[in-house]
Design brief:
There is one protein chain. With 310 residues, the chain is α+β, with helices and mostly antiparallel strands. It is built from nine helices and 13 strands. It has helices at residues 27-32, 37-54, 110-129, 153-166, 175-190, 231-249, 255-274, 287-290, 300-308; strands at 2-3, 15-24, 63-68, 71-76, 80-81, 85-89, 92-98, 134-145, 150-151, 171-173, 204-206, 212-214, 296-297. The strands form four sheets. Strands 2, 6, 7, 8, 9 and 10 form a six-stranded mixed β-sheet that branches. Strands 12-11-13 form a three-stranded antiparallel β-sheet. A two-stranded parallel sheet has the order 1-5. The longest helix is centred in the middle third of the chain and has 20 residues, at 110-129.
């Protein structure tokens, strides 16, 4: 039986944590536009099944090697403390991950932040391929979660960043998370103590507005047991979804929604072009919109050199 990492004390206590808050772009429109009960149930069924498949990437179980009848098998542990806690309400998701001290490099929270970046970007890709685009933010700060409440400054900060700064279908690092990542990596980069598994720079991109966001398409080459598509098929599906969203909103009086999907098309094209993939995967975008978003890899080493010259 697993236990919530926030409920180990006798009384509720906030813990310094990584908090990720994100929701689904256009979810309210999709729910409200159902014209009858049958359509509502069909959409619920699709959302429910999509979430069940995508949730494989947020799996929080722990396993151990045991011997049964002389044969070694991997089984879920009978009792353990979860690394992090997940809560879902409608299309709103909250992940809380208490920071721990890992003596491997002495950086408190190093393993946790990169675990969240990796798992969340994988979840974001799978949900997008199911037709659900995520927008959110990752923060660092005080948090408490149990079966009844989610409480803490980091949740407020993450919600504010999601609603005010994320804007597009992207999951950004707030100022607190970016400072945490940059300073932690730079400290141990200087000491040549940064393990390979801590180098997740490919998982982050810097947008034209200087926001750092998760590069979820980086997961397209990986194929998991419950997936049927290869990288090209995933990108074709992602293209089809993006084009459909653009076409659905191209004549909106308020062009802000349309631009959100144009942003997605730019990101899609950036990924394909930077990885020298087929031009058939590219999305045709109006030239005026095409220059709206430019991306570059968030380079920790470059950031370090910049700081050293100040």
């Amino acid at each position: 039986m697993s236990r919530n990492p926030y409920t180990l004390d006798d009384a509720p206590k906030v813990k310094e944590s990584i908090c990720a808050f994100f929701d689904i772009l256009g979810f309210k429109e999709k729910v409200n536009s159902a014209k009858n009960l049958d359509i509502s149930n069909e959409r619920l069924k699709h959302f429910h099944s999509s979430l069940r498949v995508s949730a494989n990437f947020l799996e929080n179980k722990k396993y151990e090697l045991v011997t049964e009848d002389g044969i070694s098998v991997i089984k879920e542990k009978d009792a353990y403390i979860n690394d992090y806690s997940l809560r879902i309400f409608s299309d709103c998701f909250v992940i809380g991950y208490p920071l721990k001290d890992y003596n491997k490099i002495g950086w408190q929270g190093g393993k946790e932040i990169f675990t969240i970046m990796e798992k969340l970007s994988q979840f974001q890709l799978r949900m997008s391929l199911c037709g659900y685009l995520l927008r959110g933010a990752i923060t660092i700060g005080e948090l408490y979660m149990d079966n009844d409440i989610v409480y803490g400054k980091s949740l407020i900060d993450a919600h504010n960043a999601e609603s005010e700064s994320a804007i597009y279908p992207r999951i950004i690092l707030s100022d607190s998370a970016l400072k945490f990542v940059s300073e932690g990596i730079q400290t141990f980069y200087l000491q040549n103590m940064l393990p390979n598994e801590y180098d997740k720079s490919d998982y982050l991109l810097k947008d034209i507005d200087d926001k750092i966001f998760l590069n979820y398409l980086i997961n397209t080459p990986f194929q998991f047991d419950f997936e049927n598509e290869n990288q090209i098929e995933k990108l074709k599906n992602h293209k089809t979804l993006t084009v459909a969203c653009m076409q659905r909103h191209i004549e909106d009086e308020d062009e802000r929604v349309y631009k959100k999907y144009c942003w997605l098309a730019n990101y899609h094209n950036y990924y394909c072009q930077s990885n020298n993939l087929s031009k058939e995967l590219l999305i045709n975008i109006d030239n005026q919109i095409e220059n709206h978003c430019l991306y570059q890899k968030y380079d920790y080493k470059e950031k370090l050199n910049y700081r050293c010259t100040q």
